[in-house]
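Dear colleagues,

I hope this message finds you well. In preparation for our joint manuscript, I am sending the Protein SAAL1-like (Oopsacas minuta) sequence together with its predicted structure, so that both groups work from identical material. I would be grateful if you could confirm receipt.
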Amino acid sequence: MADLIRNPSPPHQAKTDSTELKQLLQTQADDVIMDTLFSKSWLITTMNRVVQYVQKGLIQYPIASAKPIIVDLTDSSPETGVVSSPKRAKLNTENDTAVELLDCKDNGETKDSTNPIQKPSIDNSTDLTDKKGGGDTTSTAATLSDTTNSNRLVLELDAELEKEFCNLWDATVNQHVAVFFSENNLIPILIHTVCNSRYPRLNEMCMGVLANIACNTNIAEKEFSSPHIAWFSCNMLTCDDPQTLMETLRLIETCVTDESTQEVWCNVFEDQKVIDTVQFIFDSSTNTELLFSLSRLVDLLLDLWSPLLYKFSTVEMTYALFEAHSQIMHPSLETAVNIIMIIHQLSTADEGVQVLLKLHTTMVDSCSNHIMILHEELGPQLAFSDASYRAAVALLQITVDSMKIKLGTLLMEDGKDFLAVLGDIYQKNVKLYCKEEMPAKSKSPSVTKSPLINQTTENCEQLELLEKTHLLEQNI
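The corresponding structure tokens are as follows:
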């Protein structure tokens, strides 16, 4: 019988090849961060490249009269020097060699920086310093003026490195990647990079990564409850790059809203030098996005931390808020709303009321313009339901009640327009909020009470607002 034709047997595979394959697969599996597709070695390599790139820039373009900064984020109080937890990673970049990341075993398009602003620097009372008994300094202070000196040479970031770091920035949205940063002491590396970088785009991305990591509530208390990180972030408010400022504000807002870190960050924000910086931005910047983010943060801070009301209740700060409001009212109604709400919060403190009365002419002008813009943009009924309308009416009522003057004497040429707007808002909302048909209003200037007083509405607050609107109308 003829031999049967069969397919040849597969080649014999050595055991060593099988072992090597298993080891390779195991190595690849170990390199993945938890349940993600992100590689540990890629992340570490990218961070190494960034640090080396910054170091190269420092060597090529040394900073005059300043050494590269050593970052030491020991959890100690700047006032007491009491250490509450072990030191985290420390980087020393004083030599010319590339910086290595030790103990690491295991967004968006670039936007134009419109209206960059120059801000005063804060002295070394707000530095990142590790002090132990007797006031001995064990690390170089990362002062605000060093961190964000506007006179430093600004350099363009390498396009390839920017793309790679952008991918890392996006990756930190993943909670497992954020935990990896925390477990491997990479947060001080980011701060070190910002302190020594001459690249605004890189600073923006580093602050963005920090803001992403801070969103992870599981590690926020561990990594962002140190006053040193809070100081560093508030110090960054003096930088002159709007996009870096935007990410810095996002980081601050994230930490302020987290109960585990809120107290530390709010306490730092009470410092007069930080408040002066905020005042400077309100007074000087016309950047819509920046003013929106800052006004939202300040409104939140005043709501969460009452001691700040007294810190913000100054003539200079209040005037800066009015200035920002007048600049931003037409380009961004949202931002104007935030600012009016901030000013209204100031009126809840006696000191704030006294300051507002000193600036009563400016206040009447801003509030009347705000109401007219709301009427124009939202319509009379929508404007009436807007919280900032209630705030503006309340501020105007303070002027009427305290100054005992007619608003018309302060409005001058705009008085007729404002009177027409108030009348329209009043008439349209009377029918909306009152159950019965309202009788015609008296045209006598001596009338100070609205016929609404004897009517009922679905909402007592709406009745009160209608009454105030009517009274304001009678005082023009």
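For the figure legend, we might mention the following. The chain is about 60% helix and 0% strand. Residues 65-151, 436-457 have pLDDT under 50 and may be disordered.

With kind regards,
E.M.
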